[in-house]
Amino acid sequence: MMVTSRVPGFYKLSPEKRLELVASAAQLNDEEKQVLTGEQRFPLRIADAMIENVVGIMPIPLGIATNFKINGIDRLIPMATEEPSVVAAASNAARMSYELGGFFTSLSGSIMRGQIQVVELPDPYGAMARLYENKQAILDRCNAKDPTLVSLGGGAVDVEVHVMEQAKRPMLVLHLLVDTRDAMGANAVNTMAEAVAPFIEELTAGRVVLRIISNLADRRLVRARAVFSREQLGGDKIVENILLAYELAECDPYRAATHNKGIMNGISAVVLATGNDTRAVEAGAHAYAAKSGRYRSLTRWERNREGNLVGTIELPMAVGIVGGATKSHPTARLALKLMNIQSAAELAGSIAAVGLAQNLAALRALADEGIQKGHMALHARNLAIMAGANEEQIELVVQQAIREGDVRYDRIRELTQEWQRRHADGKGNRAQG
Ligand code: MEV
Question: Is the dihedral of CA 413, 414, 420, 424 positive or negative?
């Protein structure tokens, strides 16, 4: 399927027209379109099977970010978010890299860690040695629990033992390294960790307490890189300000938290749209940002010889395309179809690209006019809709409110009512004439 992600003026179309465009690109049938628009209601019985005590569903807007070229392939990016400006910002940033090749990504592997905590150890270092001596027997017991994963080329592949020297009492943690392939892997890893625990007690002569996945997925690191055009960014001064903003994030955790929050605006929106675990990815991202002992930026920014801005991002990305909500949630399935994703590695790379673009967009706005102007237009739009403006009146009201610098509900309501009165008068006059 050949798709272009460059759809100039996409944002100006109605939601129905936009849907037509993406549906034809991704070859969605009528039923699939109705799932996306919500005309085909999300079945309560699926919701009830997903979590407990279900009483309803919570709709979140799903937007499409345009202009993404990732490893040479144009992809439409579905983003589920309640925050205005995020989708527009990602699309704008991606446009500034498109002509320079777009995004290039890589994944270090698909290995997750399961942790088995062992306490009450008579000889922690002796226990560590015994665990390593019995590595193959440990792995075999784990793999017996998931023959499907093994048949797909995955499974438990290695162990690491960490004696917790900082703990007050003798304690060690066995890490099971499990290749989870196209699955996020929490279920596979947790099942293995629980199953092998009695054998670990036998080998260590200790007592097992925790048996659970680690969300610091540092053997599943995704990297993305892109070059952003200096001209499209607005010139050397803005590039310089972006580099200064990045420098602050590198040395000040107060700024790094906000800087990384902006990155997660993009990442979590795609993770959510594809039915993956937003909290797992977020926990991994923030823990990784602090891996040096200080909380830092997940991205790096440099200027190349041509004066263009080179951005890179590196973070754990535990996402899958099989299992859990990725398959059971009808919209999540369609999100993967819209993106044309065939593997968890492709999904991870695409998500990292969005995170990088999102960061660039925020830094670009902050380095220049600030973010409020863009936010205000959308905010004003929402207020105009609340005030009852129709399609035609929304734009007029928004423009006027922004010109006046007064984006408050009472003023927007006044403006909407004025336009509605004028419209009614116009109609009345025509009727009389
Ligand atoms: C707002 O949701 C995100 C930003 O604050 C990110 C940043 O400051 O880099 C704009």
Answer: positive
Distance from C-alpha of 36 to C-alpha of 60, rounded to nearest angstrom: 11
Residue 68 has a pLDDT of 98
Which of 244, 259, 261, 378 most suits a substitution to test ligand 1, by most atoms within 8 Å of the C-beta?
A: 261
Alpha-carbon gap, residue 84 to 348, rounded angstroms? 24
> What is the predicted pLDDT for the residue at 381?
86
Q: So what's the pLDDT on residue 370? A: 80
pLDDT beneath 50: ranges in the chain: 428-433
Q: Which atom of ligand 1 is nearest to the CA of 262?
A: 6
Q: Which CATH class is domain 111-214?
A: alpha beta
265 CB near ligand 1 (under 6 Å): yes
Q: What is the 255 CA–ligand 1 centroid distance (Å)? A: 10
**Token pair recorded at residue 232:** 């499209």
* Domain 62-105+221-369 shares a fold with domain 111-214: no
What is the per-residue pLDDT for 326?
85
Give yes or no for a contact between 216 and 284, defined as CB atoms under 8 angstroms apart: yes
- The values of phi and psi at residue 114, to 5°, are -110, 135
Q: Is 374 left (phi over 0), alpha (psi -120 to 50) or beta?
A: alpha
Query: 375 — phi, psi (to 5°)?
Result: -60, -40
- Cβ 362 under 6 angstroms from ligand 1: yes
Per-residue model confidence (pLDDT) at position 427: 59
Residue 2 confidence (pLDDT): 65
CA–centroid distance, 261 to ligand 1, in Å, is 6
Residue-level pLDDT at 194 = 98
Q: At what angle do helices 86-98 and 253-273 cross, to 10 degrees?
A: 90
Residue to probe by mutation, ligand 1, list 87, 264, 366, most atoms within 8 Å of CB: 366
Domains in the chain: boundaries: 62-105+221-369, 111-214, 374-432
**Tokens (6 digits) for 248:** 């602050």
Runs of H (alpha helix) within 38-106? 44-50, 86-98
CATH 3.40.50.2000 fits 62-105+221-369, yes or no: no
Q: What is the DSSP string of 374-421?
A: HHHHHHHHHHHHHTT--HHHHHHHHHHHHHHT---HHHHHHHHHHHHH
What pLDDT, on the 0 to 100 scale, is given for residue 432?
A: 39
Q: What is the pTM of this model?
A: 0.90
